[in-house]
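Researcher: Please predict.
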Amino acid sequence: MPVAQTSVWADLTGQSDAIATLRAAAAATASSAMTHAWLITGPPGSGRSNLAYAFAAALLSPAGADGDENTTREVEARTHPDLAVLSTERVIISIDEVRKLVSSSQFSPSVSRYRVMVIEDADRMSERTSNVLLKALEEPPERTVWILCAPSEADLLPTIRSRVRTVRLRVPSVADVAELIARRDGVSAEEAERAARHAQSHIGMAHRLATNDEARARREETVELALGIRTVADVVSGAARLLEIAGADAKAITEERDAEERAHALQSLGVREGGTVPPQLRAQLRQLEEDQKRRATRSLRDGIDRILTDLLSLYRDILMVQLDTGAALVNVELDARLRAAAQASDAARTLATMDAIRTARERIEGNVAPALALEAMLVAARRPRQAAGERDDR
């Protein structure tokens, strides 16, 4: 069934099967037709959390499965009285956070048919924490619906998986993402296609690349830097510059979000922007600031990972040229540079470079100093001048 543009499902793309399943569940009138625990899985950028909140809006709306504007606005602001959300900027969701959410799940809905509990990144729960959630899933209140999000079913305990209904998302096509970005963000079809392709169909990143000149410039510098690595000195300076780019990207994301959160917090506390915060309210703002500092730490790591993802796309393109597969290139604008790089090396070396990028991601996730991990990765990516018909200045 086609989705109306005013529907809560309108801004989701490339997931028609998943939308049909969740829309039918939201439209069910008999409680026996509704599953009370769901797991939405899919790769980064596929729209897991977007789909979860669209489903939540449909469940909470008095208008039915396509939702209504007021409920959608409350869900987007996380202010709906029958919606509870657990998301974290940390690596692990704490057991106390889950206990608090489980406790609130026992309340009856106040204005809607259901009380909806959303856990983003449910894969960040330890086994002990997951067992706290398990008890709530085993005996949920009649009108409580749990919606969990994770990259894959394998990221959760088997006991959790056995008590949820899984909806699997696929990576949307570049064309699907480009159509969404062009319609929603008002950019040209050409700009939307380039952003969707460079983002490798990651919806959130495609939005940033289509609407943020600085984000596009940082990505261009990243791939240009990697193509220019020749000497050991290039490796050291290149790693330092990649770290600076990641830091600038992370800062740009967190500063905008931090400002919005602070403005919203001041408004909810009844304090005008620029006004003096009463002493009795300062503790709440301090807590917000601490949360934002933790997010900044995580955001830097995410920024580095975005850079490494872009580099993987670069060497994937070089490999496709070397193997003459005819596959579409991600970085098609660099066609001539890619072909020159492909001729200066061979497929085995390119695969080794891609393995080094994956190793760098694992090392950084394991708390190895990012600069060291990036230097080791760029050593593998280094293309001696002699291989390119140039003088080696090591």
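Model: The CA atoms of residues 37 and 165 lie 6 Å apart.
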